Amino acid sequence: MKAGERPKLVRGLRQESRRFRLLVIVVGFFLVSLTFVVVSKPDAILFSLNGKLPVDQAPTSIVIQQKVNSPPATTRKTSTDALGGDPRVVDDDADGKPEGTKGEEEESRVLSEPDPASGMTELTPDKDGSAHKSDEETLGGGGDGKRKGKEEERGHAAEKHKVTLPTVSNYTIHDTEDTENAKQQDDTSNVQQGSKPLCDFSNFRANVCEMRGDVIVHPNATSILFMERAGSQRDELWKIKPYPRKGDEFCLSHITELTVKSSKVAPECTKYHDVPAVIFSLTGYTGNLFHDFTDVMVPLFTTASEFNGEVQFLITDMALWWTIKYQTVLQKLSKYPVIDFSKDDQVHCFKHVIVGLHAYMEFTIDSSKAPHNLSMVDFNRFMRGAYSLGRDTVTVLGEYPKVKPRLLIIKRHRTRMFLNLDEIIAMAEELGFEVVIDEANVSSDISRFAGLVNSVDVMMGVHGAGLTNCVFLPQNATLIQIVPWGGLEWVSRTDFGNPAELMGLRYKQYSISVDESSLTDHYPRDHEIFKNPISFHQRGFDFIRQTFMDKQNVKLDCKRFRPILLEALDNLNP
Fold this sequence. Notes:
Layout: H1 5-40, E1 64-65, H2 157-160, E2 199-200, E3 208-218, E4 223-227, E5 237-240, H3 249-252, E6 258-263, E7 265-266, E8 271-272, E9 277-281, H4 289-304, E10 312-316, H5 320-325, H6 327-333, E11 339-340, E12 348-355, H7 376-386, E13 406-410, H8 421-431, E14 434-438, H9 446-454, E15 458-462, E16 478-483, H10 489-502, E17 506-511, H11 528-531, H12 541-550, H13 558-570
Parallel strand pairs: 4-6, 8-12, 9-10, 9-12, 10-11, 13-14, 13-15, 15-16, 16-17
Antiparallel strand pairs: 1-7, 2-3, 3-4, 3-12, 5-6
Helix pairs in contact: 8-13
């Protein structure tokens, strides 16, 4: 090393050392400041996760303190500052998404048929407090929703972040409130929440939250805030996935989780609404005709029909193709364009919000619990009205001498097909029916197929999603369900038999014999699958689907089946 280079090297090392010490001081000061900020938890601090706002805070620029003592503004302000598959079976007519719409919805769409496990009745409510609450009182007393008195102070919010799965739930809605208060009003004397919990998680099928008062829907934060007034002791936080398949972890894994909580601090509203809001999801198992109805259409009718169109729908996990397909029904239930929850950047202010849809057993309305005692007869009438179908009831046999009773046979392809369709048609025509054959795949034009179904007096088909079209049948029409071999009688009745009878239809169920099943081509006659098919159910639904549904076709014994059609004819007699 040269004599002049050593001093230069020493000076360089000293400079680097000073820079390093300065950097350490700056970083240390930053960490100390950050620690102080986190510990102090000021209301105006926001930490963003994956582009979404935390559910318990709001943007620094719009966080405001609730003006609990301020009178309501004369313009549309609130009394607070406003804020803002498989389960298992893939049906061969399940792919209802129109071509060209495959996008972000594609990866979340799950297709299925009625799940035998989904028809479980008389389940016992869970007592383990799995409703995001710290004590039993937060469930609101199960179905009656009339628990009174001041609620005890809840624990920390983190203790409430407990997602319910297979629990049982009976919801309560509109306890003693007048339906006139369903619409938003400027008047602060409208019905308020009182001590009723914000959510009811006691129903085995669906969790539902319902709030009346000052409610802020903040899509960017996936949160719904119920604004508390001064002195309120309410401290609630709930996590909810607004799709009625509670307990189905696979299904719910595709559903956006929302946070419902009480709050005294909120972002300022950017949009005010004069009508209630209903928030629900469209992912799940939609795309299969049966699930379109049992998971969305029937629950949505039950939840929203009382508002007579004066209701705003906000849809999480939007499926645009689905809203286009069922546009007629959506427009009948709501006069307002749907809001895509995931793409909306507004902060909405409502006076009445329902998160989730009221649902019961499969494809069924429990009129003892539904608002205004709605029933499946009402749903059948609603569907006929939505599509402007002309026949309200079947034609009495002989009323028009030259008109034959019409029989619609649902034709399937790939699975559960009729192997002797021509023979069945010939027998039906011999009995006096005018026979119509059509495929009820879910991509069919709903309006056209609804008109066809409404024009017949009897509809028959093998167990499958196509039988869901019975919602368009006129009153007193007959639905005949052919049950494949495999011990599927109970689930067939649960999924279609009971709903049909509750709609005011006649129902006949025909279970095929071993000789009518194509399974005889795959198994010897002395196989256990014919001797004791129920024993195979313990192998799980995948086995049931693959064996008794996906790999089975039907060859009807027309002589054995003939009395069923004769009974259907007899039902048309005056």
